[in-house]
């Protein structure tokens, strides 16, 4: 219920993670349909880049305003920081303050004078400005760093490299907000170079008990994790997609015309295969390089048919092998019988 500077930067990190989740899943999903020339209904989803900009913008962002208050001369308090926010962020649609120039919040008695509220993608969060400036400064005086660097203990000395007299930096140390912002930027850069897999965990209740589901808690987490937009995009599009070559290679055994070898373009082979299997046209679409299947049950049907076909092929191979083995044994016995009979007639 009481949120200060620590929760603010944690929520900022959550916003950045949600942003990259949107870019790597929802946005990429829709862009692939456009790339492949697939006709479908565009799904609108909330892009929280506007909230990230409210917090991290280098000129008008909340972190920039906080750093400016920490560095400027004169009397600096949490109230002066809130006043600056009221001036710079007053018209932002995701920023709310009791003293804001935007009159729609002047009568909001649920918002104290010493607080501001941000409408995050998961909901509104109110922050107490008390302690923001002191926590953001996070200063360690230079003489203390030098004293710790001179310690005989190697670990303590290693924890304070800035105390080394040979590396004295007269610049003001970076604020906690700036350090955290730089760390988040490094994390985002690292994630964008990877191929992430998302595992979404839902906590059913706060009691850590089985068979208890708190509906309000579960619904809040679903909204907070952005699952609704993801499900909407998936349901509006296609559940499965695969390039033509591996698709034909996997299911070509289901059609006489494509088995055992298809002579021609892989896309034509997939078209012949799906037509032979009688799959409804509304269940799939042909892209420029991939086949798109709308419902999972169609894919399950293909897998069941393939499994049954593999069993039939295994039975056929076993039948042919057993026939060959028995015939070979019969011919060998017949040859032996002729030889034995010939020798018997000679000496009879």
Automatic annotation (TrEMBL):
Per UniProt, the keywords (alphabetical) are: Actin-binding, ATP-binding, Calmodulin-binding, Motor protein, Myosin, Nucleotide-binding, Repeat
| Residue ranges occupied by any Myosin motor domain in the UniProt entry | 1-307
Region: Actin-binding; residue ranges are 184-206
List GO BP terms, alphabetically.
Answer: actin filament organization; actin filament-based movement; endocytosis
* Recorded GO MF terms: actin filament binding; ATP binding; calmodulin binding; microfilament motor activity
Q: Which SUPFAM superfamilies match?
A: P-loop containing nucleoside triphosphate hydrolases
Under Pfam families, the record lists: Myosin_head (PF00063)
* Entry GO CC: brush border; cytoplasm; microvillus; myosin complex; plasma membrane
- Protein family membership: Belongs to the TRAFAC class myosin-kinesin ATPase superfamily. Myosin family.
Q: What is the name of the protein in this document?
A: MYO1B protein
The organism is: Hippolais icterina (icterine warbler)
Q: Which gene encodes it?
A: Myo1b
């Amino acid at each position: 219920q009481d949120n200060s500077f620590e929760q603010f930067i944690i929520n900022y990190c959550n916003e950045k993670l949600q942003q990259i989740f949107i870019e790597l899943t929802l946005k990429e999903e829709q862009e692939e349909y456009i790339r492949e020339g697939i006709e479908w209904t565009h799904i609108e989803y909330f892009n929280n880049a506007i909230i990230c900009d409210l917090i991290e913008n280098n000129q008008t962002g909340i972190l920039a305003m906080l750093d400016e208050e920490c560095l400027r001369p004169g009397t600096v308090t949490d109230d002066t920081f809130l006043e600056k926010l009221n001036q710079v962020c007053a018209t932002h649609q995701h920023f709310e303050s009791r003293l804001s120039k935007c009159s729609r919040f002047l009568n909001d008695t649920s918002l104290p004078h010493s607080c501001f509220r941000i409408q995050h993608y998961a909901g509104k969060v109110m922050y107490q400005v008390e302690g923001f400036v002191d926590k953001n400064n996070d200063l360690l005086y230079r003489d203390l760093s030098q004293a710790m660097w001179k310690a005989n203990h190697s670990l303590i000395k290693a924890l304070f490299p800035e105390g080394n007299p040979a590396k004295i930096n007269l610049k003001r140390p970076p604020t906690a907000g700036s350090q955290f912002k730089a760390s988040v930027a490094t994390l985002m850069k690292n994630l964008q170079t990877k191929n992430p897999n998302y595992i979404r965990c839902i906590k059913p209740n706060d009691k850590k008990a089985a068979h208890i589901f708190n509906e309000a808690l579960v619904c809040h987490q679903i909204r907070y994790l952005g699952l609704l937009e993801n499900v909407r995009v998936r349901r509006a599009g296609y559940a499965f997609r695969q390039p033509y070559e591996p698709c034909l290679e996997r299911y070509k055994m289901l059609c006489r015309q494509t088995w055992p070898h298809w002579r021609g373009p892989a896309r034509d082979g997939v078209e012949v295969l799906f037509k032979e299997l009688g799959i409804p046209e509304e269940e799939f679409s042909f892209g420029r390089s991939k086949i798109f299947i709308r419902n999972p049950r169609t894919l399950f049907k293909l897998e069941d048919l393939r499994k049954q076909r593999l069993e039939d092929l295994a039975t056929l191979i076993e039948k042919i092998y057993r026939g060959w083995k028995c015939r070979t044994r019969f011919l060998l016995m017949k040859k032996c019988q002729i030889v034995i009979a010939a020798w018997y007639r000679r000496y009879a």
